[in-house]
Amino acid sequence: MARTGVLTAAGLMLGWLADQAFGDPQRGHPVAGFGRVATAYERVSYADRRTNGVLNEVVLVGAVTGLGVALSSGARRPFARVCMTALATWTVLGGRSLAREAEAVAAHLAADDLPAAREQVSHLVSRDTQALDADGVARAALESVAENTSDAVVAPLFWGAVAGIPGLLAYRAINTLDAMVGYRNDRYGNFGWAAAKLDDLANWLPARLAGALAVVAAPVVGGEPSQAVRAIVEQSGAHPSPNGGVVEAGFAGALGVRIGGRNSYDGVVEDRGELGYGSAPTPSDLVRANRLALAVSAGSVLVSAGLAALVHRGRLPQVRRHR
Questions:
Q1: CB-based contacts of 117: which residues, under 8 Å, 6+ apart?
Q2: Mean per-residue pLDDT for 214-224?
Q3: Transmembrane segments in this chain: where (predicted)?
């Protein structure tokens, strides 16, 4: 009987290849379906209290984790385990779709179509985009590529390596809920507290893995690993996110550009600190950022496959045959 770690590793790699080849499903995406369920449940679970937010996380993340356990338990044969892991991996990854969005932003900027670039980048970021100039649009897109490479590729692969199918699905539920309610505003300041904190915890190790991979991959985009290390060490702490700052600083240092600074969210200005030491990013830097993201993504699937082989060294339970 094959070792479960090898099967998990194979499933992660196949799922990553499927994401690179096809991107997100255009219709009936399971993550979108989860979002609709979460929105419906919020109507009955919401109150401006942290305890209600904690309960919201327990119920929704717990339900998705339970589904992952059931799917994993049902896939007892080696071939079924690989296929189910690959399908779950493809479902939760978003690397190719992220690259397509960034490519579209770069194309609009290269064509000097600033209104179209502003509209396109609004698909990637939650900041106010209508007043951004070309440099601001390019910066917003590059920051999204960096952070979402960690959130939508490195982190799910990491948790898939650690906890298999349940880890893949649970992480995506945690990250989705943070994107839905993890805001410091009047409605979600208390209710979304648990979602934000749990997402920070789930991304702590993956973000640092993503930052390290950006350092290693810097030469792929003509960058210096030492500059990426310097940016992470010296500048990541200025970012309000304990995880986003590490990844964005690593990308900025590797690419030799300067990102970060002041952003507006629903009219509220937030200073995220400067990251990197070069000039403001250009459309060509977005192309380089996508290349760096792909290198980080490829590195993460290899690391995760190796981690899975180490963590899951048991054997699948033998399927009993009734004669």
A1: 105, 108, 109, 134, 137
A2: 98
A3: 292-311
